[in-house]
Structures are given as structure tokens and as C-alpha cells.
Amino acid sequence: MPTTPEGDTRWTAILSADMAGFTEISQAIGPERVYALLTIVLDHARAAIAAHDGHVVDTAGDGILAAFGAPRALENAALCACRAALDFQDRLQRERQRLESEFDALILFRVGIAGGNTMVARLDDGGIKVVGPAVNTVARLQDLAMPGETLISDAVRQQAEGHVRSADIGHVTLKGFPDPVRVHKLEGAEVAVSSFDAARRRGLVGLVGRGPELRQILSALSDPSDHGVMFLRGPAGIGKSRLAHEASIASGLRVLTGQCQPSSNSRAYQPFSEIFRQAADVAADGDVPDPAAPILMRHPDLRAE
Q: Taking the model in full, what pTM does it have?
């Protein structure tokens, strides 16, 4: 497929996955059943990729290649790719017994994720083509992964740090690369972690240059008769969450937080839902019949007359 001259270079997370033992499976079950199997598992892969704002670049045989951050830029491309991989592996896990019964084979996928500056060229049919070191790296990571395992590059781990759990495998020599590459095994995702929470888990440095603002907040909080609204405004990344955190420590007051996720699958009123659940001490992934009950027990004055 020819490409248009237009294209751009941007930081992109690339995900590559293929089925372990596909040649042996295809020889054992025949082409018709192979086609049926691929239809099921690749549909799961596409669904997981789409659910986390990824774009399928190519499918070939038992493999799939996806980009996160292209053609549409994402604030958290590496995290989206990690969540998509975990989602895909989880979908396969839930289907494993049925697939094994139907196709007489254990269906496992090897997944790799790498990230970096990538040339994104637009195809005439509306698709994209991605070129760059991350595309080469992800192919080697996928080959290196064990069946059912997801390996990520150090660049992806750094971008998603605090939001995911990973194990450092160390520096590995990959075919075609002159120097060893640091590789991590993706083990899971943290639940409802904000960017500030992720930074706090990595360790915070001392607060610098925010003394006047902190004193102003503490002064307003010191008056128990003043039940107003405090509006803290500033550009992204300037330290609003950190300032609220320091005010909470200094005042002893509990801070409840909610945020709009920069993804297309965010729920309506999600920030309010997160705050409400924190107030009720309900985990972000918890399921309770009446989340309001714990709040109303502690604050019966909130009950409607």
C-alpha cells in the first residue's frame, strides 16, 4: 500500500504479540480450525487495543502490531500499551479453558512493548505505517518473551512507572543490537493511580518555592467557620497535587482526589465517583451494593429529611 508524503515523528509505544507454538498448533488442527481460532483470539486483541486507545497497525498470520500515541497523540501512551497487553492476556486467561477444549491446544501469546520516537507515515487507505528503533526492539522483546508473558523496554517502564508493576530482568543482548538492552517483565497494573500517586511511590523531593501558596492554604483551612470552596489553578505539571498533599500533611486533614483520565473510555462523572468511593473507603475496583452506606453511618446529618 503506497504512503502519502505526510508524516511526523512522535513518541509512540509499540505493542507486538504472537501466538506461542502457532506452527505446531496449525499443523495439528488444520486450516479451517486455525482460521476460527485466529478470528477469536485476534478479535480479543483488537478489542483490548481499542479499549486502551491503541491503533492496530498490522495483522499477519497469528501476529498483531499496534501503536499507542499514533495516529492520535496520547498523554500516557506507554501506560495505555501496558494496560492493553494486560487486558489481552486477561481475556485469553478467561477464555483458556474454552479454547483448549474447542481447539485441543493451550493458547498462549507472547507480547512485547517498546517505546521511543517513531516515524508515523499515513497510508492512502487511512492506516499508518510506523518506522523506528522501537519497532525493531519490540520484535526482539516479543521473541524473547515466554508464552503468556509480556516484556517491556526500559523506556516504557520509565514512562509507566508507578502505574504498573514490573520485574527487572536485567540487561539482555538482543539480536541486531550492538549493546545489551534493559528488559522488564510486566506483572500487573496499579488500580486508580494518579500521576502524582505514581511520583509519590517513586519518592518525593523537598517542596521548593511554594511556601507562600502553602501558607495561604493553611491559613484558609485554619478557620473552622469558613466552609467555602478553594480553587487551586495552574498549568499541568506545575505541582497542584503536590501542594494539596503538603497541605494535607501540615493540617492533618484528609484529601480526597478524583481526576479525568486522558483516554476515550473514561466514565462520565469519574472524578466524583473516585472521590465518593474514597470517602466510603471502597476500593476503585470494589463492588458494594450501597457505597453511600459507610458515609451515612459516619455522617448521619447527611441523610435526607
A: 0.73
Q: What is the pLDDT of residues 2-58, one digit of tens each?
A: 444 567 888 999 999 999 999 999 999 999 999 999 999 999 999 999 999 999 999
- The string of DSSP codes covering 136-182 is HHHHHHHHHSPTT-EEEEHHHHHHHBTTEEEEEEEEEPPTT-SS-EE
As given in the structure block, the three cell numbers for residue 275 are: 472521590
| Residue ranges of the chain assigned to CATH 3.30.70.1230 | 3-190
Sign of CA dihedral 124, 126, 127, 132: positive
Per DSSP, the three-state class of 99 is: helix
Kindly report the backbone phi and psi dihedral angles of residue 208, in degrees, each rounded to the nearest multiple of 5, phi listed first.
-125, 130
The fold adopted by the segment(s) 3-190 is Alpha-Beta Plaits (3.30.70)
Closest CA to 244 of 196, 205, 206, 279: 196
What pLDDT, in 10s, does the model give residues 233-268?
Answer: 877 667 787 888 888 888 877 777 776 665 555 566
